[in-house]
Design a protein that fits this description.
The protein is of the alpha/beta class and 472 residues long. It is 27% helix and 26% strand. The protein is built from eleven helices and 28 strands. A hairpin with a 4-residue loop joins strand 15 and strand 16. Helix 1 packs parallel to helix 6 and helix 7 crosses helix 11. It binds flavin-adenine dinucleotide. The site of flavin-adenine dinucleotide (FAD) has 36 residues, from helix 1, helix 6 and strand 24. It catalyses: 2 monodehydro-L-ascorbate radical + NADH + H(+) = 2 L-ascorbate + NAD(+). It comes from Dendrobium catenatum.
């Protein structure tokens, strides 16, 4: 028994939804495309799960956040897929893949064949057991990767009003969940091994600001140690966490956000894997020319970083890489290599930040940390390669994105520190002032114009998307 499709998207998350819309816009015949997903719902905007979905009042619920509303585009309900003749094979796990035969086999034993496959399997949440701690199956221990997890988290929060929660992990899932728990009137202790929160991105100075803000909301931080075991786990409900340094923290619930692992398992030994993801070229094409990979599971060359391969775990990258793969499949002659400006953001409480580029090199902080209006540039070999801004407006976010895209030269650290966003906000003005701030001037006028236009449109999209995200 089996079915055959021209195009198969394996995975039904963010990237799948954006790829489906791109297929439909570029034109495919009914019955040519199917999406196979382990989840029982049509693709949705996953970031909503740690934001609007967890609100105590007027929480976001499906169908409100099906893709592609996160980029202010069409909302693709199950009806839309039916109307387009796109088959949604939901609640179906693919158990094996054979890229030579071009087949996938599902848990029910069905064989689905394709001419072109897009792998969009994303990632899964790392479990405590992978670090030698038992207890993930306790009633009040929650993870957050999919809708089922989020529903469980909401139900658990509802039984813990005015009680205590421990959040294990200081990354963005930990930070966003801690904020949501506080908003739901739950007292939070965060535990993580690093010296400060968001250690992969934040500098100690940036982290200090957010930690102080969280503390002002009642969050307690225990840093530099890890979970060792749970108390009373065997009774079904954890009543306390025990840390490696011996500290015991009584709790009514636990949220675990200790990282993710890309879902590459089906393709290991069949496709080239690099940096934990499926290695693709600038067309998102893997080492097998009929197989593409997009989103969290793909490791792709980032032009901006000299084509260094990166695997990114952010929604903007999932959306754009998915669209790019479809363009490369349906319009190969008109599609050049993916040119992506890494971008991510977060919104917690009334705070919001955006980051563009790469956090390597020397850091220059600027702004007023006490007032919550600050940022940082990462400068490598005299050029801005990364930019962070808390509490910016549209023009400011555009400006920092632009600076990274153009790799603006930043030679005078004192001036950069003093001017902050202003340093990058007006290339022309800085050039006119000729005050010792050397800006990156492309060799030809047209390159400059095109570069600015591309950067502005990327930044405008990013900001627009960021604003949309406030709801989710
Ligand atoms: C709670 C949460 C909040 C987030 N917030 C932000 C944010 O604020 N900003 C940001 O930039 N990013 C955020 N992200 C990250 C962002 O959501 C991901 O980068 C994005 O979802 C990746 O899209 P994807 O399509 O590659 O993978 P996913 O959206 O994870 O989709 C993968 C899909 O594949 C399915 N699948 C996997 N294996 C199989 C199989 N064998 N058979 C069938 N189906 C399979 C999965 O069930 C899933 O449906 C957040 C992530 C989470 C979990």
């Amino acid at each position: 028994m089996g079915r055959a499709f021209v195009y198969v998207i394996l995975g039904g998350g963010v990237a799948a939804g954006y790829a489906a819309l791109e297929f439909s816009r570029r034109g495919i015949a009914p019955g040519e495309l199917c999406i196979i997903s382990e989840e029982a719902t049509a693709p949705y905007e996953r970031p909503a799960l740690s934001k609007g979905f967890l609100l105590p009042e007027a929480p976001a619920r499906l169908p409100a956040f099906h893709t592609c509303v996160g980029s202010n585009d069409q909302r693709l309900t199950p009806k839309w897929y039916t109307e387009q003749g796109i088959e949604l094979i939901l609640g179906t796990q693919v158990k094996s893949a054979d890229v030579n035969r071009k087949t996938l086999t599902t848990a029910t034993g069905e064989t689905i064949s394709y001419k072109t496959l897009i792998i969009a399997t994303g990632a899964r949440a790392l479990k405590l057991e992978e670090f030698g701690v038992r207890g993930s199956d306790a009633e009040n221990v929650c993870y957050l990767r999919n809708l089922a997890d989020a529903t469980r988290l909401v139900n658990t929060m509802q039984t813990c009003n005015e009680e205590n929660a421990v959040v294990i992990g200081g990354g963005y899932i930990g930070m966003e969940c801690a904020a949501a728990l506080v908003t739901n009137r739950i007292k939070v202790t965060m535990v993580f091994p690093e010296a400060h929160c968001m250690a992969r991105l934040f500098t100690p100075k940036i982290a200090d600001f957010y930690e102080a803000y969280y503390e002002s909301k009642g969050v307690n931080f225990i840093k530099g140690t890890v979970l060792s075991s749970f108390e009373n786990y065997s009774d079904g409900k954890v009543t306390a966490v025990v840390l490696r340094d011996g500290t015991r923290v009584p709790t009514n619930m636990v949220v675990v956000g200790i990282g993710i692992r890309p879902n590459t398992g089906l393709f290991e030994g069949q496709l080239v894997i690099e940096k934990g993801g499926i290695k693709v070229n600038g067309r998102m094409q893997s080492s097998n020319s009929s197989v593409y990979a997009v989103g969290d599971v793909a490791t792709f060359p980032v032009k901006l970083f000299g084509n260094e391969c990166r695997r990114l775990e952010h929604v903007d990258s999932a959306r754009k890489s998915a669209r790019h793969a479809v363009s490369a499949i349906l319009s190969p002659d008109k599609t050049s290599d993916f040119d992506y400006l890494p971008f991510f953001y977060s919104r917690v409480f009334t705070l919001s930040w955006q980051f563009y580029g790469d956090n390597t090199g020397e850091v220059i902080h600027y702004g007023d940390f006490l007032a919550g209006r600050f940022g940082a540039y990462w400068v490598n070999k005299g050029r801005i390669v990364g930019a962070f801004l808390e509490g910016g407006n549209r023009e400011e976010y555009e400006a920092i994105a632009n600076a990274v895209k153009l790799k603006m030269v930043a030679q005078d650290k004192g001036e950069v520190e003093k001017l902050g966003v202003e340093f990058v906000s007006n290339v022309g003005r800085h050039q006119e002032r000729n005050n010792g701030l050397v800006l990156h001037k492309p060799l030809y006028e047209w390159q400059a114009t095109a570069g600015v236009a591309v950067a502005l449109s990327v930044a405008a999209f990013a900001y627009w998307y960021g604003r949309r995200r406030q709801r989710w």
